[in-house]
Amino acid sequence: MGKIEKDLESRLKGINTRNIRKSLISQLENRDYAKAACRDNPYFKYNLIDAIINNINQYASTEPKFKSNLNSTLNKDEAKRVFYGLVCMEGYDSDLSKVISKLTDWEKVCFFAGVWNKREMKDINSKYFVNIVKDYIKAGYNFLNKKHMIHYNEGEYKRPIKIPGSQDYHKKQGNNEKKQLSFDF
Predict the structure, then answer these.
(1) Distance between CA 183 and CA 40 in Å, rounded?
(2) What share of the chain is helix, strand, coil (3-state, %, to 5)?
(3) What pLDDT score does 7 carry?
(4) Comparing C-alpha atoms, which of 130, 30, 18 is closest to residue 90?
(5) Degrees (nearest 5) of the Cα angle 100, 133, 111?
(6) Rounded to whole angstroms, how far apart are CA atoms 7 and 40?
C-alpha cells in the first residue's frame, strides 16, 4: 500500500451524500449473519483467499499482487472473518461499491472484517458517513491484529502481523500508550 496519497476522509468526500450514507446504514442494519454462517465456505485457505478476492472485486478491483500479499499475511481463521463479512453484505445495491472503490485494498479487507465483528449499531444514525466507514475499518483491523497477536504471544507465530501500509496510519504513540490503528482519522 505504501504512503497513502490522500487520507480516507478526502477520498470519501466526493461520495459523501445523504443517499449513500442512508444506503450504507441500511445495508449494515440488514446484514444477514445466518447467511454467512450457513453457507458452504471454502475449506482450504487458498480457496478462501480466492473467494475473498473475487467478492471484493465485485465491488472494486484489487491490485494484481494483492492476492499473494493477503495469502501470506492472514491465516485461515482471520480470512474466514473477512469472508463472512463479505457474505453477510452480499446482494445489496451499488452504493456500497462506490464506498469500497475509494478504499485501499487493505482498508477493504479491514472494512469487511469489521462488518462481521462489529455488530453493535449504537448511535450509527447520528454518525457522519466517513466516521461510519472509519469505525468498521478500525474494528476490522483491531480484530485481525488481536487474533494474530494472541498466537504470536503464545509463540505459535514468529512475528507480529504487519498489514502493509498500517505503519502509515499510526498517530502519535507515547511509550506507555497502547498502539491503535488510526487509518488517517
Answers:
(1) 33
(2) 60, 0, 40
(3) 82
(4) 30
(5) 60
(6) 37
C-alpha to C-alpha distance for 173 and 116, rounded to whole angstroms: 28
What is the model's pTM?
A: 0.81
Is the confidence at residue 182, as pLDDT, over 50? Answer: no
Task: State how far the Cα of 139 lies from the Cα of 40, in Å rounded to an integer.
Answer: 25
List, in order, residues 6 or more apart from 161 with CB less than 8 Å away. 73, 144, 145, 148, 149, 152
Q: How far is CA 56 from CA 48, 100, 110, 134, in A?
A: 12, 8, 12, 18
Torsion angle, alpha carbons of 51, 56, 60, 61, to 10: -40
The half-sphere exposure of 41 on its side-chain side, counting CA atoms within 13 A, is: 23
Asked whether the CA dihedral 124, 126, 132, 138 is positive or negative, the reply is negative
Position of cell 480466492? 50
DSSP states along 70-105 = HHHH--HHHHHHHHHHHHHTTT--THHHHHHTTS-H
Does residue 5 surpass a pLDDT of 70? no
Residue with cell 452480499: 90
- The rounded distance, in Å, linking the Cα atoms of 157 and 135 is 28
